[in-house]
Specification:
alpha+beta; Alpha-Beta Plaits; globular
Length: 158
């Protein structure tokens, strides 16, 4: 049997500490459709809220697409930790999958993008909220029930 060497995440964990803002995309393994029921999405939002509170992280936006999820998170204090927040979220929701929806799981890693101070955060938020429109699920983002924010009114951000 071959030894599989796991590729490390591309950035050091120190890059996620403090007043950092980043976009994360987490995908369901094998593109399985998961986020189509309000109860499931609400459970995941609750877990996201707990992780954000624990690691002192603000959530600008979230969108739960049928087979993946997007988040923009930002550290609120010097000791805020986006890495621990997103990993905690993945672990807790992964445990939920193993207990409740055994045929679904997250892909091993995730995609992320740390925002530079000069980047336009509103454009990134707009890109995420428009995702259901680009996928043809709804004709306007406001009709998509699984987009929101833990810390803001989305309409006011745009």
């Amino acid at each position: 049997m071959k030894n599989i060497i796991e590729k490390p995440h591309r950035l050091n964990k120190e890059n996620y500490i403090g007043f950092v803002c980043a976009t994360f995309t987490l995908c369901i393994k094998d593109k399985k459709v998961v986020f189509t029921e309000k109860d499931i999405v609400n459970k995941f939002i609750e877990i996201l809220k707990n992780s954000c509170e624990k690691y002192e992280v603000k959530n600008w936006i979230y969108t739960f697409m049928p087979n993946h999820a997007h988040f923009i998170l930002e550290g609120m204090y010097e000791k805020s930790d986006l890495w621990k927040c997103i990993v905690s979220f993945k672990q807790q929701t992964g445990y939920w999958f193993s207990r409740t929806m055994k045929n679904a799981s997250w892909q091993k890693d995730f995609y992320d993008h740390i925002h530079r101070k000069d980047e336009d955060l509103i454009n990134h938020i707009r890109y995420i909220v428009e995702n259901p429109v680009r996928y043809g699920i709804v004709d306007i983002w406001e009709k998509y029930p699984y987009t929101g924010s833990l810390n803001h009114k989305v309409e006011e951000l745009l």
